[in-house]
Amino acid sequence: MRVEWSLDDFDLPAEELPAAFEPVAERFEMRWRVEYSGVRPRVAIFVSRYLHCLMDLLHRHQTGELACDIPLIISNHPDAAPLAAFHGIPFHHVPVEKDKKAEAECRQLELLEKCGVDLIVLARYMQVLSPGFVARYPQRIINVHHSFLPAFSGARPYHAAFQRGVKLIGATSHYVTEILDDGPIIEQDVIRVSHRDQLKDLIQKGRDLERVVLSRAVRWHLEHRILVYGNKTVVFD
C-alpha cells in the first residue's frame, strides 16, 4: 500500500510522527516508512566510459524532471570530467586497479559519506561492486543492464544477443544486490531487431532503451513509488 496525503492542516510535527504511529504498526505487524516530498534526495552517479546514460540523467536533472541534488559524479576513467564540469558537478576520478579494488571502494565510500548520499545510480558503470559496498546501501543502488534480464546477463549481452539471432533486445533497471544482475527489477523495455541489424545497430538501439529505462527507475525511486518485496518490486503509477 502507498498512501499520499497533503500536510495542509496536519499539525503533527515530522519528528513526532514515528512514535505516534508505531503502536498502530505494531498492532497490525506492519513494515512501514514515511517520506516527505519536500526533501530532495542526494544522488551520486557512477559512470565509466559510456556517457549516454549520464548525459540523459544530467539533462533531466537540469530541466527539473529529477527532483534531487547531484553532489558528485564518480568514475574509474577521466572521460566524463568535461561533462561534469559543464553541469557544474564535482567529478572524482577513482581508478579501479585489478589488485586494488578494495582501496578504490574505500575512497568511493569516503566521498559518498562526506556528501551525504542517499542514492547511487550506476549509469553504465562497468565494475562489479563488492558485497560489503552493496550492504552499505541496501535498495539504494540502481543499475541499468543492457539486456532484457534474465536473458544475457554479464558483460557482453549485445554480442550474445547478436550471436543468438534474437528478434527483440531490451534493457533493464534494477536494484543492485551482491549477486550480479539479480536484484529486484524496477523497469524494462524492448525494441525489435531483425536479420538486417548488425552488432553496431543492436548497440545503438539498445543505448536508447538504456537511457529511458534508467531515468524511469531513478524518477520512480525519487518519488517513492517503488516497494520492494522479496526479489520483486511494486511500482505505483
Give the structure's gist in a few sentences.
The chain has 237 residues and is α/β, with parallel strands linked by helices. The chain has helices at 17-27, 52-62, 81-86, 101-114, 131-136, 157-164, 199-222, and strands spanning 42-47, 69-75, 91-93, 119-122, 141-145, 168-175, 185-192, 226-229, 232-235. Helix content is 34%, strand content 21%.
**How would you sum up the global shape?**
globular
Q: Regarding CATH, which class?
A: Alpha Beta
**Largest sheet geometry:** 7 strands, mixed
Tell me the count of domains: 1
Reading the helices and strands in chain order gives: HEHEHEHEHEHEEHEE
Task: Set down the secondary structure blueprint.
Layout: H1 17-27, E1 42-47, H2 52-62, E2 69-75, H3 81-86, E3 91-93, H4 101-114, E4 119-122, H5 131-136, E5 141-145, H6 157-164, E6 168-175, E7 185-192, H7 199-222, E8 226-229, E9 232-235
Parallel strand pairs: 1-2, 1-4, 2-3, 4-5
Antiparallel strand pairs: 5-6, 6-7, 8-9
Tell me about this structure.
This protein has a single domain, classed as Rossmann fold (3-Layer(aba) Sandwich), CATH 3.40.50. The strands form two sheets. It has a seven-stranded mixed sheet, sandwiched between helices. A two-stranded antiparallel ribbon has the order 8-9. The chain contains seven helices and nine strands; from the N terminus they run H-E-H-E-H-E-H-E-H-E-H-E-E-H-E-E. Helix 2 runs parallel beside helix 7 (199-222). The chain has helices spanning 17-27, 52-62, 81-86, 101-114, 131-136, 157-164, 199-222, and strands spanning 42-47, 69-75, 91-93, 119-122, 141-145, 168-175, 185-192, 226-229, 232-235. By secondary structure, it is α/β, with parallel strands linked by helices.
